[in-house]
């Protein structure tokens, strides 16, 4: 009978190790999927802000803002961060009136973009942290996905002037 205890103990240990590996693999997969979804959402918010800025530039503020918005809309992924930073700088030079619907759309899009960027950054950090674990690297649990990338842009939050009363 002592031999049977060793067999049962070995089966229990193998079962626990297998359960842990499956749980870890699912966690890696889930974090990767969430980071990819956050990246797509961030991209959508970047496009919305650039489109709102282009509309605003057409209505009121002219060529430089419009050019920055068009470059941000048409940028390839390798040039996207620089284009978005340029658009943010251009938007900060513009005086935004809170009663103008076009300005309000740009401000709202910028706030949503800031939230999407923060969520994306948090999920990328978590996905990269779990990919650095030794168990994940040894068993190559993240091989089905590329390592997520940070999207490093200036804080896109725009504010209305303090001396303008809001409704």
| Fraction of residues in β-strands | under 5%
N-to-C terminal Cα separation, in Å?
A: 82 Å
Structural class by secondary-structure content: mainly alpha
Biggest beta sheet attributes: none
Query: Order of helices and strands, N to C?
Result: HHHHH
Percentage of residues assigned to helices: over 70%
Low-confidence stretches: none
Identify the overall geometry: rod-shaped
- Indicate the mean pLDDT: 91
The radius of gyration is 24 Å
Give a brief rundown of this model.
By secondary structure, the protein is mainly alpha-helical. It has helices at residues 2-61, 63-74, 80-93, 101-131, 134-138. Helix 1 (2-61) packs antiparallel against helix 2 and helix 2 packs antiparallel against helix 3 (80-93).
Report on this model:
With 167 residues, the chain is mainly alpha-helical. The protein is 73% helix and 0% strand. It is built from five helices and no strands. α1 runs antiparallel to α2 and α1 packs antiparallel against α4. The protein is rod-shaped. The model has no long low-confidence stretch (mean pLDDT 91).
